Amino acid sequence: MKKVLIMVICILPSLLLQAQTLDTQKSKANFEVKNMKWMTVEGHFSGMKGDINFNEADLANSSFNVCVDAATVNTDNNARDKHLRNEDFFHVDKYPTICFTSTSISKTSKGFVTKGSLTMHGVTKGVSINFTYKNGQFVGQLNINRLDYKVGESTGTFMVSDAIKLEIVAVTN
């Protein structure tokens, strides 16, 4: 009996902090950007893959390491999507993924915040993502400046705003 109890005590922490499997069909990164200062273009990236290790009781050992496939950019406009994939914007042949790797996760009054590195278009910047977690679904929000990541530099900010609103929805099984 003593051996069984010791085994349970040793195994229990690893069972509580296990990688959650991403549901790639339901997980995506949504975005909004102003076009010509008054129209809003909405779209998303899919093909999210990676590792999520999350335990509310052990945030110090929790982590995110996820990527989306940049070639999956979808704004429901084939011509625009094709343009977004080329060298002017995401250059998906050279930079096929957009990735986030966490360095810390902490509790807030409205949920959680994770800090880490966002890599897009060959540029890595530190970001903070406020997120909630409920029933196996992580929903995070952040705002970025596309020019910080050298995305669409030759396009002025009148045609495409530099401010991008992102919502990441990561659904686990």
Structure notes:
13% of the residues lie in helices and 49% in strands. The chain is mainly beta and 173 residues long. The protein has a single domain, classed as Lipid/polyisoprenoid-binding, YceI-like (Lipocalin).
Short description:
This protein is mostly beta strands and about 170 residues long.
- CATH architectural name: Beta Barrel
Our estimate of the beta-strand percent is over 45%
Largest sheet: 10 strands, antiparallel
Morphology? globular
Helix content: 10-25%
> What is the count of DSSP helices, taking H or I runs of 4+ residues?
2
Number of domains: 1
Using brief descriptors, characterize the structure shown.
single chain; 173 residues; mainly beta; Lipocalin; ten-stranded antiparallel β-sheet; 13% helix
Q: How are the elements arranged and paired?
A:
Blueprint: H1 2-16, E1 19-20, E2 28-35, E3 39-45, E4 49-53, E5 63-69, H2 78-85, E6 97-108, E7 111-120, E8 123-134, E9 137-145, E10 160-171
Antiparallel strand pairs: 1-4, 2-3, 2-10, 4-5, 5-6, 6-7, 7-8, 8-9, 9-10
